TrEMBL record:
Protein family membership: Belongs to the UPF0065 (bug) family.
PANTHER family: BLR1237 PROTEIN (PTHR42928:SF5), TRICARBOXYLATE-BINDING PROTEIN (PTHR42928)
Protein name (Swiss-Prot/TrEMBL): Tripartite tricarboxylate transporter substrate binding protein BugD
SUPFAM superfamilies, sorted: Periplasmic binding protein-like II (SSF53850)
Protein's UniProt keywords contain Cytoplasm: no
Pfam family, one: TctC
Signal sequence, renumbered to the chain: 1-32
Keywords: Signal
Length: 335
C-alpha cells in the first residue's frame, strides 16, 4: 500500500515536471519574439575584398538597420570555402551566426569525399541574394578572334592550349571544366591561388584562356587592350555588356554558369527568426546603395520570389544535382 505522503510527493513531482515542460516549450518562441537583442555575425568563407565579402558588407548595413542590431561580417577562410559553413553548421541555432556563401555550397559535396557538413540537411535557408555572371577570356594575342575560331583552334591544338583558373574547386575551374566537357576537349589546366594572379598571367600572356567573374573581368573587357572576350556564360546577354554574345547562343547549348549567392542559418533556427532575417535581407536587396553598387559590379540581385527560404532550397537542390553530375563526368576533385 502506498503511503499518503509518498503519493502526494509523487503528484507534486509530476505537476512540477509538467510545468517545467511547458516552460521549456515556451522558451523558443519567447526568445524568437525578442530576437535580436545583440549583434548578428554574418560569416563569409573568403578573404576580405573578394566578391562574396564585398556583397556581405554591402548587405550588412541595411540588414542591421532593419533588425535594429549590427550585422558584423566575419571572414572565416580556408579549405576551399568549407571551413565557414562547417563553423556555422555547428553554431548555436539561435540566429546570431549566419552564413553567406556562393555556389560552392552546391559543388562541395561532389568535390570533397569527406565533407564535415551536408548543405541539404545541416542548414535552414534564408534566401538567395544575387548572381554574378562570368566571361570567357583569352590572352590578347591568342590566335582566334571569335568563338567559332576559338572552338576550331582548341579542338585542333588542345595539347597546346592552357586554361587558367582561380584554384582547385573554384567556380572558374568548374566553368572551365564545363567548357571543355561541352567542347569535348582536354586542355592543360593551371590552378592559381586566386583570381587576381590568374588574370595577371592571362594579361601577361603566360596562359591562354580564363573563365572568371564579371566583377574582375568587366574592367579588362571595357579596356579592350589586355585580353580578348569570347562570350558570357549566362543564358542571356548582360545589360552591362550587351554586345558580347552568350556561349549558349554561339553553340554551347544549355551553357549557363553564374556565381549565385545564398544566405543560411544553422539547422533548427526558429522559423520566426528565419522570417526576421529574410525580411531584413529583402529590405537590403531594395536599398538604393546596394542596387547601385551591385550594378557597378555587373551583377544581378535576385527577384523577390528567389530571395526566400523556399527559393533557395529549390535552387540549391537543383544545383547540387547539376554540378554533381558535371563534376563526376569531368573527374574534378578538390583533394
Amino acid at each position: 500500500m502506498t503511503h499518503p505522503s509518498t503519493s502526494s510527493a509523487r503528484r507534486w513531482a509530476l505537476k512540477a515536471c509538467a510545468a517545467g515542460a511547458v516552460l521549456a516549450c515556451s522558451v523558443g518562441p519567447a526568445l524568437a519574439s525578442n530576437w535580436p537583442d545583440k549583434p548578428v555575425t554574418l560569416v563569409v568563407p573568403y578573404s576580405a575584398g573578394g566578391p562574396t565579402d564585398v556583397v556581405a558588407r554591402l548587405l550588412a548595413v541595411p540588414m542591421g538597420q532593419s533588425l535594429g542590431q549590427s550585422v558584423l561580417v566575419e571572414n572565416t577562410v580556408g579549405a576551399g570555402g568549407t571551413i565557414a559553413p562547417t563553423r556555422v553548421a555547428k553554431s548555436k541555432n539561435d540566429g546570431y551566426t549566419i552564413l553567406i556563401h556562393h555556389m560552392g555550397m552546391a559543388t562541395a559535396p561532389a568535390l570533397y569525399k569527406k565533407l564535415p557538413y551536408d548543405p541539404l540537411k545541416d542548414f535552414e535557408y534564408i534566401g538567395q541574394v544575387l548572381d554574378v555572371p562570368m566571361t570567357l577570356l583569352s590572352r590578347k594575342d591568342f590566335p582566334a578572334n571569335n568563338f567559332q575560331e576559338l572552338q576550331d583552334y582548341v579542338k585542333k591544338n588542345q595539347d597546346k592550349v592552357s586554361l587558367a583558373n582561380a584554384g582547385i574547386g573554384a567556380v572558374s575551374q568548374l566553368c572551365g571544366m564545363l567548357f571543355m566537357h561541352q567542347l569535348g576537349v582536354k586542355l592543360t589546366t593551371i590552378p592559381y591561388k586566386g583570381a587576381g594572379p590568374a588574370m595577371n598571367d592571362l594579361m601577361g600572356g603566360q596562359v591562354d584562356l580564363l573563365c572568371d567573374q564579371t566583377t574582375q573581368t568587366v574592367p579588362v573587357i571595357k579596356d579592350g587592350k589586355r585580353a580578348k572576350v569570347f562570350g558570357v556564360t549566362t543564358s542571356e546577354r548582360l545589360s552591362s555588356l550587351p554586345d558580347i554574345p552568350t556561349l549558349n547562343e554561339q553553340g554551347l547549348k544549355g551553357f549557363d554558369v553564374k556565381v549565385w549567392h545564398g544566405m543560411y542559418a544553422p539547422k533548427g533556427t526558429p522559423n520566426e527568426v528565419i522570417t526576421k532575417i529574410n525580411q531584413a535581407l529583402n529590405v537590403a536587396l531594395k536599398d538604393a546603395t546596394v542596387k547601385a553598387r551591385i550594378a557597378d559590379l555587373s551583377s544581378d540581385l535576385v527577384s523577390p520570389d528567389k530571395a526566400t527560404p523556399e527559393g533557395l532550397r529549390k535552387h540549391l537542390e537543383a544545383e547540387v544535382a547539376r554540378w554533381g553530375k558535371v563534376i563526376r563526368e569531368t573527374g574534378v576533385t578538390a583533394e
